[in-house]
C-alpha cells in the first residue's frame, strides 16, 4: 500500500504542479483524485489511532452506520480515572476524555456510566460541565451526559449561572422547573419561544405554562402548530389552553408533512374531529398489516375510544371501510358514532 500511495502522490503532484499536464484533461483524473482523498482519510484515521495507542488511550470506535444504536463504550470508559489532584486543568481533561469516548454513541440513558462519572466533578465546578455542553460538534454524547449530571448537581446557588447558559442550552429547562425559577427566567423563556425554533424541549413549554400568563397562549399555540415536537407540546398545553386549541391542532396536522410527524399527530387530530387523521391511521394499518405492531398498539386505545369498536385489526379495517361515510363526529363526546 505504501508504494501505491507514493505512486498516487507522484501522479497528484504531476496533475497539480505542471500547467501543461492540467491542460491535457484525462477522464481518469477525477477517479485518481477521489482515490487519493479516500486514502488520505484512511491514513489520517490510522495516524490518529496510532497516536492514541501510544498515549495509552483506547481509540474511539469508528463512526456508526445507519441504524447503529450503540450505547456506552464501557470498556473504554473503564480506563478513565478521576484525577488524584482535581485541579481545574485536570478536571477539564477528565471531562474531555469522557466526551471523546462518547463521540460515536448513538443511544443514551440517564443510567449511562458517563453521568455518574461527570457528577464526580461536583457542584463547585458546575461551570466546567456547562462549558462542555457548548461543544456539540463532536457528537451528542458529551452534551447529553453533561446535561444529566448538571440536572442532578445544580443547587439554588447556581441560579445566575444556569440563567446565563439557558438561552443557548434549552435542555437546562428541567433545572428551572426543579427550583421554581420560572419568573426569574421569564424573559429568556419567552424570547426562546418567540423565536419559534424547530424544537424546544417539553420542559421549556412546561416552564412557560407555569407562568400562568394568558398572554403566553398565542405563542404556545403557534409553537404547537409549527414546532417539531407537536405531540409533546400538545400534551402540555391541552390541559391549560382551550380557546383556539381546535384551530391550532388542525393547523398542526396540516403542517405535519413527514411520516413521523403525522404518526405523532394523527391520534390528537382525530380526537379533535379531523376525519383525515382517522383515515390516515386506518389506512396505515391496512397498508402495513401486522408488520407494524408498535404503531397499532399506540393507536389502538385511541381508535377504540373514538369509535367504540373492539376487535382484530382486519375486522376494524373492514368495519371502518363499511361505515366510514355514516360515521359522525360528536364534538361533546369527541367520538365518531353511527346515527341511530
Estimated helix fraction: 55-70%
Q: Termini distance?
A: 81 Å
What string gives the helices and strands in order? HHHHHHHHHHHHHHHHHHHEE
Mean pLDDT: 81
Widest sheet, order of strands: 1-2
Biggest sheet details = 2 strands, antiparallel
Number of strands: 2
Describe what you observe in this structure.
The chain is mainly α and 340 residues long. The chain is elongated and about 80 Å long. Helix 10 (173-179) runs parallel beside helix 12 (202-210), helix 12 runs parallel beside helix 14 (230-237) and helix 15 (245-255) packs antiparallel against helix 16 (259-271). Among the domains are: 1-20 and 29-43, no CATH class; 83-153; 271-340, no CATH class. It has helices at 2-17, 19-23, 29-54, 74-77, 88-101, 113-119, 126-133, 140-153, 159-165, 173-179, 186-194, 202-210, 217-226, 230-237, 245-255, 259-271, 275-288, 293-307, 313-323, and strands at 328-330, 335-337. Strands 1-2 form a two-stranded antiparallel ribbon. A hairpin with a 4-residue loop joins strand 1 (328-330) and strand 2 (335-337).
Amino acid at each position: 500500500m505504501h508504494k501505491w500511495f507514493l505512486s498516487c502522490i507522484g501522479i497528484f503532484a504531476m496533475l497539480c504542479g505542471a500547467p501543461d499536464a492540467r491542460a491535457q484533461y484525462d477522464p481518469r483524473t477525477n477517479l485518481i483524485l477521489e482515490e487519493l482523498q479516500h486514502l488520505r482519510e484512511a491514513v489520517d484515521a490510522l495516524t490518529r489511532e496510532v497516536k492514541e495507542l501510544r498515549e495509552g488511550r483506547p481509540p474511539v470506535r469508528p463512526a456508526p452506520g445507519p441504524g447503529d444504536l450503540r450505547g456506552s463504550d464501557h470498556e473504554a470508559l473503564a480506563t478513565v480515572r478521576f484525577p488524584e489532584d482535581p485541579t481545574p486543568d485536570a478536571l477539564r481533561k477528565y471531562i474531555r476524555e469522557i466526551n471523546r469516548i462518547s463521540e460515536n454513541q448513538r443511544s443514551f440513558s440517564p443510567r449511562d456510566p458517563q453521568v455518574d462519572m461527570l457528577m464526580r466533578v461536583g457542584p463547585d465546578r458546575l461551570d466546567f460541565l456547562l462549558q462542555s455542553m457548548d461543544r456539540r460538534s463532536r457528537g451528542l454524547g458529551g452534551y447529553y451526559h453533561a446535561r444529566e449530571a448538571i440536572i442532578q448537581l445544580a443547587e439554588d446557588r447556581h441560579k445566575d449561572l444556569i440563567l446565563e447558559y439557558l438561552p443557548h442550552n434549552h435542555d437546562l429547562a428541567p433545572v428551572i422547573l426543579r427550583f421554581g425559577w420560572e419568573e426569574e427566567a421569564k424573559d429568556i423563556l419567552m424570547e426562546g419561544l418567540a423565536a419559534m425554533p424547530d424544537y424546544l424541549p417539553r420542559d421549556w413549554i412546561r416552564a412557560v405554562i407555569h407562568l400562568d400568563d394568558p398572554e403566553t397562549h398565542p405563542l404556545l399555540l403557534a409553537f404547537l402548530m409549527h414546532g417539531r415536537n407537536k405531540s409533546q407540546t400538545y400534551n402540555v398545553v391541552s390541559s391549560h389552553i382551550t380557546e383556539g386549541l381546535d384551530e391550532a391542532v388542525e393547523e398542526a396536522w396540516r403542517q405535519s408533512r413527514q411520516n413521523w410527524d403525522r404518526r405523532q399527530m394523527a391520534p390528537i387530530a382525530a380526537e379533535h374531529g379531523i376525519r383525515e387523521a382517522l383515515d390516515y391511521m386506518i389506512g396505515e394499518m391496512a397498508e402495513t398489516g401486522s408488520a407494524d405492531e408498535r404503531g397499532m398498539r399506540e393507536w389502538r386505545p385511541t381508535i377504540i375510544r373514538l369509535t367504540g369498536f373492539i376487535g382484530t385489526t382486519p375486522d376494524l379495517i373492514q368495519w371502518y371501510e363499511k361505515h366510514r361515510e355514516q360515521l359522525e363526529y360528536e364534538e361533546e363526546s369527541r367520538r365518531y358514532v353511527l346515527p341511530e
